[in-house]
Write the structure tokens for this entry.
Amino acid sequence: MNEQTSAPMSGARRELVLTLKRLRRNKGATLGVAILLIVSIAAIFSSYITPHDPTFRDIARRLKPPMYQQDGQTFLLGTDAVGRDIFSRIIYGTRITLIVGLASVFFAGSIGVLIGLLAGYLGGWFDSLAMRIADVQLAIPFMVLAIAVAAVLGNSLTNTIIVLGITGWVTYGRLVRSETLSVRRNEYVTAAEAIGVQPARIVFRHILPNVGATIIVAATQMVARMLLAEASLSFLGLGIPFTTPTWGVMIAEGRDYLTTSWWVSTFPGLAIVLTVMSANLVGDWLRDVSDPRQQLARLV
């Protein structure tokens, strides 16, 4: 009994070790994982590691440069137009940014994966209708559609997630549909249909696990897109309300001071660049690892 249970565990450990070795060989992906871990830790423990209250205003210290000191307190990245600590606001903003990014990816993925699975397996009128809707949505630029939907729903955390989810499902839908069309031709799917297995069981028990790697890679790459979209909507005043510290809101608040107080917008902008770059690096690495053609090319 113990020998039977230890074999799968050793295989899982072996696969984990191989994955970590591949990650270590890819310097870009390693850097991306490290930055994402730092951002995640900052988001989880933001209430404990912020040196100052991110919403406290003090006009007496407005627009102070980085490393400004007052009454024994150091403002590492300076202050904004109303005297709030930029470093604390960036740390606190990681929580909202990651919540919006991950929740919108999950929402868009849930819709897109479900539609893609049903369209690829059922075909017929449902497939045609879903793909025509996707074609119409793809004909409209992503940000234009997001701005239009956000203008209708209004700006709030929940509405921002809904907007990004509605506008982002197409990527998952088309990708999962193409994978489903390929998987459904396999013999095990044909055998399941022949013995009368219910279509829902075939889709979620046999097809979905075989397209799971593709979904994970797409979701990782979509995180970067959603982070940029959230920052853009917040910058335009259509995303998170200005009373909530987010990176997009901070950039918008500092755009009038670029020539005199560059740090107000520069540091939150750098936070966006580093996070998006890291998500893209990790997504590219996952795509290479999960692609059999890439693995074969490395062996050759």
Notes: The chain has one domain: 49-299.
